[in-house]
Amino acid sequence: FGECVHDLSRQIAASAPRYITSAEVPAEDIEKEKDVYRNSEELKNKPANILEGILKGKLNKFFGEICLVDQLFVKNGPGEKTTIAQLLAKVGKELGDTITVKRFVRFQLGAK
Questions:
Q1: Helices marked H in 16-101 — which ranges?
Q2: Is 112 helix (H, G, I), strand (E, B) or coil?
Q3: What does the buried/exposed string (b/e) look like for 10-30 if buried means 16 or more CB atoms within 10 Å of the residue's CB?
Q4: Mean per-residue pLDDT of the chain
Q5: pTM score, whole prediction
Q6: How many CA atoms lie within 13 A of 30 on its CB side?
């Protein structure tokens, strides 16, 4: 468990997540992100049914950048795609318990 907590601390320091899960991301931030994608040259002329699928994939990538549990684990080796959620489930299973992250604080020198 101690090693897992240490790894989570390193993850937070290195990847600077803003939220723990995608459920915490404000709806207006999600809509702004969707608007950016919708207005991009890449997606401007796509049919609506295809556009929705592409937007879903782009949002999942966005969540993978800003949400801790959706991020790829920084200690992954080449080709590994373990997310923090998967890591927590694996370590929890090994310990015979469930591990959840309720909150975190990240300090950064020179931050406003």
A1: 27-38, 48-66, 84-95
A2: coil
A3: ebbeebebebbebeebeeeee
A4: 91
A5: 0.82
A6: 14
Structure tokens at 79: 């080709």
pLDDT in tens, 7-23: 999 999 999 999 999 99
pLDDT in tens, the chain (112 residues): 999 999 999 999 999 999 999 999 999 999 999 888 888 887 777 787 888 888 899 999 999 999 999 999 999 989 999 999 999 999 999 999 999 999 999 988 886 6
The DSSP result for 10-37, as a single string, is HHHHHH--SBSSGGGS-HHHHHHHHHHH
The length of the chain is: 112
Measure the CA–CA gap between 92 and 89, rounded to whole angstroms. 5
